[in-house]
Structure formats: structure tokens, C-alpha cells
Design a protein that fits this description.
Length: 389
């Protein structure tokens, strides 16, 4: 997704659609008349969206309406990122679309989405997603059991579409909801989602509690106490990261990657290995973040294990493609034969760093490439029994 830029040619007098903002387990909607909006740290009483996290500045993002579009301006010290790229200046949320932004760090920050899709669909999709995750039901499970295919479910959970009547009934049954519950969610949303104070909305009997804004803490004496996250050239964060917040961020980021995995092309397609490499790159960033904080938390250690297992699974999948690169097949050979980097390097007569670089997709000398290819051919990609799950 390309970073949206401001179009100065928007006609005057047009009005922007309702904006839905989602982050962590929160959801709020805003009309154009409520602009400008501020996303900021909890103690900023003037902000409309509050985040209790020292990585967030008192005024991290300001949202205004320009013609028919919502325009965001990033002012926070730790910045904001779209697909790993830092946003300089402004970004735009066009009509009938959704923009995912990471606040504070490209991989370990606070995930926030800005949606201009039908706010009722966004609300219902959010409730379906929350219920599914609360029951620990994966998108793949619902697809495998014939309830709904993963692509359609992703579209519903992101507010792009509504389920058909038959699918809606199947979803309600799978999620343990009574018949007609999703329609009740729609009625509830239409009755209250446009109110300026979501926390004042009444909750109909049997309905889920409407997400309320975070409580506003008393202002601190200092004007600015944003905790600055430093990164080195490998995008690794320092131990200044707050561990409990990192755990939540890691979990959300991993779930997002699992959702993207569902949309991978078939292994026979030429673009399959490249698409996997994109996911592996994101997982490597998450691994660096989790590793930097893992010595302080068992929960982070668990997330780190999940990240490494998912990365391994993806690389093994890539190796099954007829378009796999040398690094993919090399990794599969090592895993299947249970060889360390040093052991594989010794057998291939190259350095351990050569093996690591090859698996990472780096450029290698012709001599090293030849040695590694000879090693892979001699071992055979199916050495041992390990395969992608």
C-alpha cells in the first residue's frame, strides 16, 4: 500500500465521511463536524482519543477535514509509520477506505486503523473479530469448518462488507450468539454510534458493552514526558520499551501477519516466495523487538517463541515452491537435517555468516552461491522429516 499524500485539488464544500478509529481493544467514531481531532497520551484532556502509553506524545496526531477527506498530521516525537515507513508531514484517509498506522515504532508501536467505510459495518466487524478472538477461534478454523472462507471473513471484520443471511446465521452459531444477534448489533450501532460521547450510549439488554474512551488521568507536572524509543540500524529497540505494552503490540502484529498469510498466492505462482519474504521481514523485526524485551517477561518469551515458529513455518513453505530462492531451500535443508549455522557452513565449506546472509536473501559471490547450491543438492531438500505446518 502506498502512503497516501494530500491532494490539494479537493473541491471546497465537500464533507468527509464518518471516521472510525480503532486501536488495541478500543473503537470510536467521529463526524466531520467534530474535527479537528487529537490522538494523544491519556493526560491530555483536550485530546479526543486517549492512549495510556509513554511512547505516545501528548499530541501525537492531529486529524482535520479537507474537502471530502480526513487528513492526519503527525507531531509525536516517536512518529508514525505506514508499512514500516515513517510518515513525514501529512497522510490522507480517502473515502471508503482504511489506513493502518503504527504509532511510536514501525513494528513494536501501537497499531491504529483509520476507516472511512460504513461505520455500522466497521462496528459489527469489530464485534465479530473481538468475539472470535475471545473464543480463540482462528479464521482458518471457520474456513475449514465451512462457516465462511477466510477472505470473506477478513472483509467483514474490516468493515468492507456484510455477511449474507445464511453466512450470518452460521457465524452466530459458531460464535455462540443467539439467532439475530448480528442484526441487533447493527440496530445498536445505528442508534448510538454517531453520538459525540460514546461512553454515554445505553447498552440494550444482552448486547455487548460499547467501547468507552479511556479514563483521563490527572495532568502531570511536566509539559512533555514522551518515552523516546531509539532504534539502531537494524530497527531493534532498546530496553526502554515498556514490556507489558510490548506484549500486547507483539500479539496484535502477529495476528495481522497471520491474516496476511491467508491471502498468499498459490505456491506455484512466481510471486509466492517474494510475498513470503515480505512476511518474514516483518517477523524478523518483531523478533528483534521481542528479543530485546524477553529477559523481563515470560509473556514476551512466549510471543518470541510464536514469532520464531511462524517465521520457520513460512520459510519452509517458501522452500516448497518451484520458484524458491537458494536461501529458502538452504533453510529447509538445515531445518530438516537439524543443522546449526556452523554445522551447515562446515559441510558447505563456507562461513556461518555466508549461510546466514544466503537465508536472509542477501547478494553472495558466485563462489559462495556455487558452494551452497552444491551443498543443497547433495543434502536434498527433503533430508529428514520436517515440513511446514
Amino acid at each position: 500500500m502506498a502512503v497516501a499524500t494530500v491532494d490539494s485539488g479537493v473541491r471546497e464544500g465537500e464533507r468527509a465521511p464518518v471516521l472510525t478509529i480503532r486501536w488495541l481493544e478500543q473503537l470510536q467514531t467521529f463526524r466531520a463536524a467534530q474535527a479537528p481531532l487529537t490522538v494523544g497520551r491519556t493526560e491530555n484532556e483536550a485530546a479526543q482519543v486517549h492512549i495510556a502509553d509513554n511512547r505516545i506524545s501528548r499530541e501525537h496526531i492531529t486529524l482535520t477535514v479537507r474537502g471530502d477527506r480526513w487528513v492526519g498530521t503527525v507531531t509525536g516525537r516517536n512518529g508514525a509509520f505506514i508499512e514500516g515507513r515513517r510518515i513525514d508531514g501529512e497522510f490522507v484517509v480517502p473515502p471508503d477506505s482504511e489506513l493502518d498506522v503504527m504509532l511510536g515504532h514501525p513494528s513494536g508501536g501501537i497499531a491504529m486503523s483509520f476507516s472511512t467505510r460504513d461505520p455500522v459495518n466497521v462496528y459489527v466487524g469489530d464485534q465479530i473479530s473481538r468475539r472470535r478472538r475471545a473464543l480463540n477461534i482462528s479464521q482458518r478454523t471457520l474456513a475449514d469448518t465451512g462457516v465462511i472462507n477466510a477472505g470473506a471473513l477478513i472483509g467483514i471484520e474490516k468493515g468492507r462488507s456484510q455477511p449474507r443471511a445464511k453466512t450470518e446465521a452460521s457465524l452466530e452459531q459458531a460464535l455462540g450468539w443467539p439467532a439475530g444477534y448480528i442484526e441487533e448489533l447493527r440496530r445498536y450501532a445505528r442508534a448510538g454510534i454517531f453520538q459525540s460521547a460514546p461512553s454515554a450510549q445505553a447498552t440494550p439488554p444482552g448486547q455487548p458493552q460499547a467501547p468507552a474512551p479511556a479514563a483521563v488521568a490527572q495532568p502531570v507536572a511536566e509539559e512533555e514526558r514522551t518515552e523516546l524509543l531509539r532504534t539502531d540500524t537494524a530497527n531493534e529497540t532498546t530496553t526502554t520499551v515498556e514490556v507489558t505494552l510490548v506484549t500486547d503490540s507483539l500479539h496484535i502484529a502477529v495476528e495481522a501477519i497471520r491474516s496476511r498469510m491467508v491471502m498468499l498466492p498459490p505456491p506455484t505462482q512466481p510471486e509466492y516466495p517474494g510475498e513470503i519474504d515480505k512476511l518474514v521481514t516483518d517477523l524478523s523485526r518483531l523478533e528483534a523487538l521481542a528479543s530485546s524485551a524477553s529477559h523481563n517477561s515470560i509473556d514476551v518469551v512466549r510471543e518470541l517463541g510464536d514469532i520464531r515458529r511462524l517465521r520457520r513455518d513460512l520459510l519452509l513453505r517458501a522452500a516448497t515452491s518451484p520458484h524458491a530462492r537458494l536461501g529458502h531451500t538452504l533453510f529447509a535443508v538445515r531445518q530438516n537435517a537439524e543443522l546449526s549455522l556452523d554445522e551447515a557452513a562446515s559441510l558447505a565449506k563456507v562461513s556461518a555468516e555466508d549461510v546466514r546472509l544466503a537465508e536472509a536473501g542477501a547478494q553472495l559471490s558466485a563462489e559462495v552461491q556455487f558452494a551452497l547450491q552444491r551443498f543443497v543438492t547433495a543434502m536434498g531438500i527433503n533430508s529428514g522429516t520436517r515440513t511446514a505446518g
